Amino acid sequence: MDADIDYPKTGQRIPNGMLQDNYPRNMWWVAALSADITSQPISRWILETPVVLYRLENGKTAAMYDRCPHRWAPLSEGRVEGERIICPYHGMQFDPGGTCVKAPTQKMTPKTAQIPAFETREAGAFVWIWMGDKDAIDCDPPEVGYQTDPGWSFMSGYYDVAANWVLVRENVLDLTHIPFLHANTFKQNDWVTAPETYMDGDTVCYEQEFDLAPLSPLFCAGMGLPEDKPVKRKQVGRMPSLAVSFSDWNVHDPAPDEGRRSDFLMRGCHIVTPSQRGRTHYYWGAAFDVPDLDAGVIEKTRKSVIEAFDEDKHLLEIMQAQISKDPRGLDYLEVTLGADGAGIKVRQVLNKKLEAEGRSLS
Amino acid sequence: MDADIDYPKTGQRIPNGMLQDNYPRNMWWVAALSADITSQPISRWILETPVVLYRLENGKTAAMYDRCPHRWAPLSEGRVEGERIICPYHGMQFDPGGTCVKAPTQKMTPKTAQIPAFETREAGAFVWIWMGDKDAIDCDPPEVGYQTDPGWSFMSGYYDVAANWVLVRENVLDLTHIPFLHANTFKQNDWVTAPETYMDGDTVCYEQEFDLAPLSPLFCAGMGLPEDKPVKRKQVGRMPSLAVSFSDWNVHDPAPDEGRRSDFLMRGCHIVTPSQRGRTHYYWGAAFDVPDLDAGVIEKTRKSVIEAFDEDKHLLEIMQAQISKDPRGLDYLEVTLGADGAGIKVRQVLNKKLEAEGRSLS
Amino acid sequence: MDADIDYPKTGQRIPNGMLQDNYPRNMWWVAALSADITSQPISRWILETPVVLYRLENGKTAAMYDRCPHRWAPLSEGRVEGERIICPYHGMQFDPGGTCVKAPTQKMTPKTAQIPAFETREAGAFVWIWMGDKDAIDCDPPEVGYQTDPGWSFMSGYYDVAANWVLVRENVLDLTHIPFLHANTFKQNDWVTAPETYMDGDTVCYEQEFDLAPLSPLFCAGMGLPEDKPVKRKQVGRMPSLAVSFSDWNVHDPAPDEGRRSDFLMRGCHIVTPSQRGRTHYYWGAAFDVPDLDAGVIEKTRKSVIEAFDEDKHLLEIMQAQISKDPRGLDYLEVTLGADGAGIKVRQVLNKKLEAEGRSLS
To answer: Does B196 lie at the interface with C, CB-CB under 8 angstroms?
Structure first.
């Protein structure tokens, strides 16, 4: 920090910096989409760890550290035979628990050839992974099963974001950026006041009711509403885990056309997984409580959502790049506004989890 | 440094390395061309700091640290309304002094939301910036006003050079490289002896007179001289500031054609601004004391100058890249020649300024 | 290393890491192909040092540190006149011993302007360089002269591999990877048992005899053998220096067609030179003891070899990249197999040489 330049002396330090290793290990993170896991192994960076993922013949998912203990070749370059993954370099074979079961060049199988294997759970559209202490597993992955429920119409997407996961996590829990960053896409420009935020156990929550106003055009088609029709909205957000949060748009049409419903729900879902340093896997979903939406409507909505989320990605990546190149780095104090209630609660949840893992907060 | 290899044990250490933070803060640097500053904000890295620049309705220029104090979004991605710049992320508004004047999500405007703002001055074709202690401002920016004087014909250019600013600064004050690096472009191959160098107050100066010889073809067209006509030259260099230096080519034609002047001046101007680590903004100008030169002559001259300066950029960037990748880095001693008088004086001026700012010299 | 994840606690540390400065200086390394050295100077990174190489009028090779001691310009950007290399920046001239013999801007030639020069030897197709203590030169470069012997038919290639040289060196001395990594190219899938390995003085050796089996299709054409004909093989490897190793395929055809030889030799040659950190120059050669092989056969064989070696390059580069990005870096223990005899001996030779140079092993 330059002595000469008058940087603010008060404010808040980022409790865990965007340039740091700032993710809990003892929790479920999304490793991949279920559909991505086949008998063809893939490599994913998760919590700064290269992980090889593949599907067993019995349908289960295996996940292990993507480095052979012999000469460090990535197993993801190898192939799967039945339950086993075979190293591409010298053909060593490992079972899904990471135990070497065959070293082709010798009779003895070396007992020390053991790869760290990770616990996985498949639920709905996702494969979840627990990278920390297995004995600390105390819960199931968060429930996002509605995404495969036939009562809903669903669309989704994935971004590899070149920004720390906390930037993404706070972004999706802070909706007052919508009228600014997304003024020309979401166009939900009444969202300029802070929502009420609270904790429900360990779940960060926000709630906010809006009076009659046209709904964001992103969601009109999915609900069959004209873009200029005033409706009431109750916005409800919940983050049951640092890995996933939901953003519910409860819409009430006070004057529905004959034969039409008055109430609709669009449930957004935001899933983040730390990848390499300063990179994040970001999975999003958007579902309408309307079965069998027309494919054209879904595609139109999906495209509009992507157009808006591209704006987030662009901004967050510039932020990350700028902070990384700036010698001041994380030493510039943050000022927090009343509207940051949900974001601050995210940080509190994060700090609590890091402290529970004996990690020091910077 | 390898013990085995016989690297020279005598010589000179670079007083402030090319890989280091080696720029004074308490001085005027060029932030941008005047023409670049409009109501559309732009971001520039200056002294390793991201700076947002924009023009107010009253024509003045605003410059501030390009990170919102709230959640660090770059203001340069936002927009300007009147005097104010509006953060792209949550719409916070700042006046040109960096003071937050509106936080749209709340009634109270947070007093701590203050962005460092920088002093600027516009003069001639440039906007200058003072990034250090405002109380230390003790001078106006260097005078380069002839560049907008109708008595002169002017051309200019800009390079983003991937080399430390000192490499560029020394390059433009050391003209004995012209017959070697620019043997096929400048072709001013009589410039092989060291000029006289001296200090005029804090201004580094050199002077050198040359006997009859053809003038560099780069400048013949601008002065209306045939390329093979022998002329006398007095080369005068002045560096009134580390940010800017002039290179005057005073040409005397002892046998002018009837009705033609005997004396001409080409004034070169070299402006450098440290950007990111190991990068430099380099602005150059070349002006003839001939009004209303033909556009074709100007364009031809400009292209020839660029061809020559491309040679400098190429060499300096290779030097920087090689030094950066070499484990010996800056630990290879320099041998100084008699012709380095101006360059050594540059380093003395630099060290004096850094010491005045309490910076340690490595 | 994460406390939580159950990484193996036993195993072997890499004695000299793939991310470190782990090359001896007191030995001959290949600087370039002879054909690459002309009167046009070139720059090569060798042992993390930029080296300029050029050929003198008398045919000898000069090699020196590629930084002018004056202002650090790379001499490789300059030009050669007779024996001398001329700096591109200010025209300083140096003899092949690195001594400045002319500084054009002054009468006195500065005695301190001395560039480290390196000893070179040309032998066969290669120019060798000794970058360490010249007084320690105690041998000639390894003999690879058969590559220019008219009794042999020869093909060769070069790779710039983005992996530490030890990864490449171990790869070419460990042939049990052939049936796995090269299952679809070499197709020499009987090579699944460990060879006998031993030291012959300082030379790492392996030997292995194989019973009747079809020969790798890569080498059938060169020996004029049908791809399905069973032959006997004696595989002999020798590494006389960390810089070079040979892989001899002694093939015995027990039932040659009338008028044909029974015995053939394909001699592979693997030369590595550390380049920049984590990069390696890799030169390979393959020669058949058959004079005047048809150009079509040579080209077909060369292409097949490249296809196979591309598989090594791909895997080694992924390994290096993954290790570099993984915070665990080199802290993941290796398990060694019986088949690693030659590779382990390589490490022993390496450690002995590093210790002789007073380098600490990590």
So the answer is: no
Which amino acid would we find at residue B195?
P
CA separation for the pair B13, A39 (Å, rounded)? 60
- Tell me the pLDDT of chain A averaged across its residues: 92
- Residues in chain B within 8 Å Cβ distance of A340: 71
Sequence-ordered list of residues with C-beta below 8 angstroms from that of B342, at least 6 positions apart, any chain: B173, B174, B195, B197, B204, B205, B206, B237, B239
CB pairs < 8 Å spanning A and B:
111
CB A124 within 8 A of CB A144: yes
Q: Is the pTM of this model over 0.90?
A: yes
Q: Is the pLDDT of residue B240 over 90?
A: yes
Give the list of residues 6+ apart from residue A117 with CB closer than 8 angstroms, or none.
A62, A63, A64, A65, A96, A97, A98
Query: B224: left (phi > 0), else alpha (psi -120 to 50), else beta?
Result: left
Q: How far apart are CA B8 and CA C156, in angstroms?
A: 39
Residue type at position C56:
L
Q: What percent of chain C has pLDDT above 70? A: 94
Tell me the Ramachandran region of residue C361: left when phi exceeds 0, alpha when psi lies from -120 to 50, beta otherwise.
Answer: beta
Which two three-digit tokens encode residue A155?
């669309």
Residue B142, pLDDT above cutoff 90: yes
Structural domains of chain C sorted by starting position, each given as residue range(s) with its CATH number in brackets: 28-136 (2.102.10.10), 148-356 (3.90.380.10)
Task: Give residue-wise pLDDT tens across range C79-110.
Answer: 999 999 999 999 999 999 999 999 998 999 99
Is any Cβ of chain C less than 8 angstroms from the Cβ of A105? yes
Identify residue C96 by its one-letter amino acid code.
Answer: P
Angle at A152 between CA A147 and CA A153, to 5 degrees: 90
C 275-294 residues with CB < 8 A to B: 276
Residues of chain A with Cβ-Cβ distance to B110 below 8 Å are 335, 337
- Give the mean pLDDT per block of 10 residues along chain C (362 residues): 54 54 93 96 97 96 96 96 96 97 93 93 94 95 84 95 94 93 96 94 96 97 96 97 97 96 97 95 96 96 98 97 88 87 92 84 52
